[in-house]
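User: structure tokens for this one?
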Amino acid sequence: MTNPGSLVRAVVRNLEPYSWEPSSREIARRHHLPSDQILRFDLNTSPFRPAGWERVLEEECRSGTPNEYFDTSYAELVPLFASYCGVTEDQVIVGAGADEVLDIVAKTFLDDGDAVVVSPPTYSMYAIVSTQMGAGIRRAPLGPGFGLDVDAILAAARGAKLIWVCSPNSPTGTPPDPQRLARLVDEAPCMVVVDEAYGEYAGWSAVPLVPSHPNLIVVKTMSKAFAMAGMRLGWGIAQAEVIGMLNRVRPPNSVARVTARLGAAALQDLATMRANVAAVVAEREPLADALRHAGARVHPSATNFLLAGWEPPGRAQAIADWLESRGLVVRNYAHDPELPGHLRITVRTAEQNARLVATLAEYDPAAIE
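Assistant:
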């Protein structure tokens, strides 16, 4: 009998996969806690429900047709995305979350042996979707203050197909300087993909550069500011010719009908999204101050999360373990070579943040480390 492993593509056998976080149920079981006591500070999701949640679910339960395929053109969503971003409908592609749009971009542009540029530390999916297509990764690390090193990126991009940029960047929380990013898009010899998963928190977008830059693709999501992480809906903005190429690769019906209807409702109630964003942003600096009081170096953030570092790096690991044992889960970079001693912490509601701060205040390094 043939060994299936021998038939797997070599690039897949050698691929370092995305590291999924343990489920809340698994963490509760690990620490003998009730599941409803687990609070996620590691996923950068919104603490609020999306606009129209109950109404859309009720309407779908009453009159929906889950037994039928949904509209593959996403005719309800595309005009709403276009209006929100101030572009034409032929400049929009819809996907099941921003990750699917990133995957579509990689499949559209990359052949085996091509090169892409990433600026670590950044979102690991850029390298993963590129490597899956057989592309090589060129690294142009972030500069001082986690800013884009445009000269280094442009030097690395000679002969490359794609440059991946996270704006604002995850896991650091830093936005690129708009002028530097504009220069990068102007001078890049290849496609530039700007992932704006946290763009609503930063208040600035690269979308206005699209009409004058055929090499630019801006990727956005409903997962963060729009509070739809569990529903999986994202979109991309580019010139019409690029969107036409991307649509050749896009799966025909990956977005579920309930997701699409909920996305439409959220896009028709932008006031709720903006109020929720403002509520989170208002809590960001108080949480940063509390983390500084706990001994952390907190980096400036334009997102709904904070990157906090402790010395020595082992202390960050001990803090992460302490918090998790009490049902509070943070993203752990304590032993990451690019961010040693760091934890990434989502900004949630005042009450939820207070629970984390109070638990952190109970941590006694002398007794635990």
